[in-house]
Specification:
4 helices; four-stranded mixed beta sheet; alpha+beta; about 40% helix
Length: about 130
């Protein structure tokens, strides 16, 4: 699967409300159209996950940027960096040790269905954004 050049790919759990809402947030604030998306559950998501050798237990938001895979807190930092102002203010949290930031991320990811719910079907993009989904 070819990721469009100079784009940041966000792989997400299409059944997770929190993950789907994250995608909607990015779409709304991505002025440069720097992001493309794929649910982990579709063929493109599965193929990309396999090609980057991403383990199955990484199952929330994964970011592919510059030929590298980022997950846990790393995915959040890439997203806010690429979104630019004012969202990149959250890069200040990079002062937190990565092990702590990753533990916080994994704790939220583990509880996301309990706290935010689970969709009955995989998230489908609005028609006007369909070109941004693999």
């Amino acid at each position: 699967m070819l990721i469009p050049e100079k784009k940041t790919l966000v792989l997400f759990d299409g059944y997770c409300h929190l993950c789907s809402n994250t995608v909607q947030f990015i779409l709304k604030h991505d002025r440069k159209k720097a992001f493309v998306f794929a649910p982990l559950q579709n063929e493109a998501g599965k193929e990309i996950r396999k090609s980057f050798r991403i383990q199955d237990d990484v199952d929330s938001v994964i970011v592919i940027d510059g030929g590298k895979a980022f997950y846990y807190s790393g995915s959040v930092f890439i997203i806010v960096k690429r979104l630019g102002n004012p969202w990149n203010i959250f890069l200040a949290f990079k002062i937190m040790p990565k092990v702590w930031a990753d533990k916080l991320y994994r704790w939220i990811a583990r509880n996301r269905f309990k706290w935010f719910g689970k969709r009955e079907s995989c998230y489908l993009p609005p028609e006007d954004y369909s070109d941004r989904f693999l």
